[in-house]
Design brief:
The protein is of the alpha+beta class. It contains eight helices and twelve strands. β3 and β4 form a beta hairpin. The longest helix is centred in the middle third of the chain and has 12 residues. The protein is globular, with a radius of gyration of 19 Å. It binds coenzyme A.
């Protein structure tokens, strides 16, 4: 087999990366074929390509997140051209992205090569991340809660205060997506949740939501979803999140799920976190 070379990606690689993403069915906005998404990763993360015979046959990306006692390397993407699946390109790219030891996490697809490959790099599978989609009109804001628009810097400031994670760059980029907007959720006179929403077409919904330590995590999700414009929306929730049952009972549907894999299950609290599958 032709040797696979792994190197840091440059803006010139975006067409090759897009071709690999499209071959894997990743044609949607804010995925590998979307230059805005890839440019965000090039600017704020580490992106590599796997090259064989001069052609890009795979790409992968990590984003370092400042969480708790130190950085966590989030694997955002790992994709290989269909004809090269199982040929070692995924392993070669991951060995480059996760060369340094440390805390790691990702949302693994259910592709049969994904979980076994990631497990070898020290991450275990802990819980499913459920992609839920449904009618906004079937939801009502819980009593005493309301949601109001906010600029991305304000959303990021609240999240930083509650979690210690500075996600300002991500909130700004998420706000620039189609339908992108920041929201704060109030319970009485207190801000209890901060979210960025957006996305194109059927992907429109909650991109990422942070809650105050004392917040009712289910109510925070419901008030934000109930406030959205449009008939339907999407949210990605950990299986154990307390809003899951309320959404299913309201007629929301499970579309698909990924698996949260991490060196330590404590990196994300599945009963409170509402992460972006790509960037957490
Ligand atoms: C997931 C993906 C990136 C992996 O890249 P790849 O080049 O196909 O994977 P590799 O050949 O490097 O490694 C696959 C590993 O899985 C192992 N594997 C495959 N099926 C397995 C199974 N059923 N049980 C145990 N191990 C299995 C292989 O033996 C190999 O391990 P090895 O290197 O120790 O032999 C690629 O298959 C892909 O693009 N899949 C579709 C898109 C996708 O789902 N991406 C993941 C997004 S999170």
């Amino acid at each position: 087999m032709t040797k696979i070379e792994v190197r840091t990606a440059a803006p010139d690689d975006l067409p090759g990366i897009a071709a690999v993403a499209l071959a894997n069915g990743q044609g949607e906005e804010w995925a590998g074929a979307d230059p805005a998404y890839m440019r965000h990763l090039l600017a704020h993360g580490t992106v590599v390509v796997g090259v064989s015979g001069g052609t890009v046959i795979g790409f992968g990306a990590t984003r370092e997140l400042a969480m708790g006692p130190g950085p966590v390397s989030m694997l955002c993407d790992l994709f290989v051209d269909l004809g090269a699946h199982g040929g070692g390109c995924g392993r070669a790219m991951l060995a480059e992205l996760w060369a340094a030891p440390g805390r790691r996490m990702t949302f693994s697809s259910l592709h049969s090569n994904a979980l076994p490959l990631y497990a070898g790099f020290g991450v275990d599978a802990w819980w499913p991340l459920l992609y839920l989609h449904g009618p906004v009109g079937a939801l009502a804001a819980p009593a005493g809660w309301r949601a109001a628009p906010a600029v991305p810097a304000e959303v990021a400031r609240m999240e930083l205060a509650w979690t210690g994670a500075d996600r300002a760059d991500d909130h700004l980029a998420w706000t620039r997506r189609p339908g992108g907007a920041g929201l704060l959720a109030w319970h009485g006179r207190e801000v209890m949740a901060a979210a960025t929403v957006g996305g194109a077409g059927g992907e429109y919904g909650v991109t990422h939501l942070a809650v105050a330590p004392s917040a009712d995590a289910a109510a925070a999700v419901l008030v934000v979803l109930a406030s959205l414009e449009g008939e339907t929306a999407r949210v990605c929730l950990p299986g154990p999140h307390p809003a899951v049952r309320a959404l299913l009972a309201a007629g929301w549907r499970l579309e698909e799920f990924d698996l949260f894999m991490a060196t330590d299950p404590g990196l994300l609290d599945p009963r409170r976190t509402v992460p972006s599958p790509a960037l957490a």
